[in-house]
């Protein structure tokens, strides 16, 4: 069982299952521009590099979608700037169970309110936004213009309170939540204008104006309904279509770099120069080895250091043989450049 990759939207997505008996691909080594032997590229290293390439390709795709679908930069207007008025629920609940009682009581009014907002924005709440003629699906949810969720599961909330909020259950804002999904930039502006006009929005995180490192763009709003703060997610269909696949990549690297000395997003930012090292669909891991060999041969310091940062022990990636060869090659290139400068 080799490194398995699935294709969604033309971009490879990661699988973490890998045979322990798989033989490593060979990397040709170079010294002063001449071949000087080979080392084995560990198959896990090949898989991780391929996943990195897939993630960067997907990010570039998302940025391209944004450039095409959001040309007017409506969501960057000052009136849609991010803000935060409250950092926790203004609630008398003494525990999480009581907060759930409040949330359940607020749900009918919340649904009525957001449905009215969508309708006042000139949209049909029950319409299915389309991308290239197909409905938008993420994590088995088929998005309508308005998708109102049931209350968030208690077990998931308990974990979130413990791990993210230091036990403070009043910081939970997404027990009651919905998604509003539109097809155009102009519709985004209309819906957000209507939401803000209610006067009940207590927090806005505009990630169209400030995208995530992955390139994903959306808006997260918290709106107070019946005394309970609820969550509204505002999406563009063409971007939300890619969110699930990008989330798969980010979960993969977040786990891979869980023991790293810096955040996984910082590591990924610093290794983005490696976007073409992964294998193309159908080529297998051998092409990763060939691309790494080419990088060693060419001696591009920026890209060599990016690869060295990725495979170095500080990231938790750990490929000591390749790390050593990269260090040797970097030193060799620096010495050659210094000699050229003296001459």
Structure write-up:
- This protein has helices spanning 43-69, 96-120, 154-164, 185-197, 237-256, 264-270, 286-298, 301-311, 320-342; strands at residues 6-8, 11-13, 25-31, 34-41, 83-84, 130-131, 134-135, 137-138, 141-142, 146-148, 177-182, 201-206, 219-225, 228-236.
- The protein has 343 residues and is α+β, with helices and mostly antiparallel strands.
- It folds into 2 domains: 6-62 and 257-342, no CATH class; 77-244, Beta Polymerase, domain 2.
- Strands 5-12-13-14-11-10 form a 6-stranded mixed sheet. It has a two-stranded antiparallel sheet with strand order 1-2.
Q: What's the topology here?
A:
Layout: E1 6-8, E2 11-13, E3 25-31, E4 34-41, H1 43-69, E5 83-84, H2 96-120, E6 130-131, E7 134-135, E8 137-138, E9 141-142, E10 146-148, H3 154-164, E11 177-182, H4 185-197, E12 201-206, E13 219-225, E14 228-236, H5 237-256, H6 264-270, H7 286-298, H8 301-311, H9 320-342
Parallel strand pairs: 11-14
Antiparallel strand pairs: 1-2, 3-4, 5-12, 6-7, 8-9, 10-11, 12-13, 13-14
Helix pairs in contact: 1-5, 8-9
Region (Disordered): 1-24
Coiled coil: 86-113
InterPro entries: NT_sf
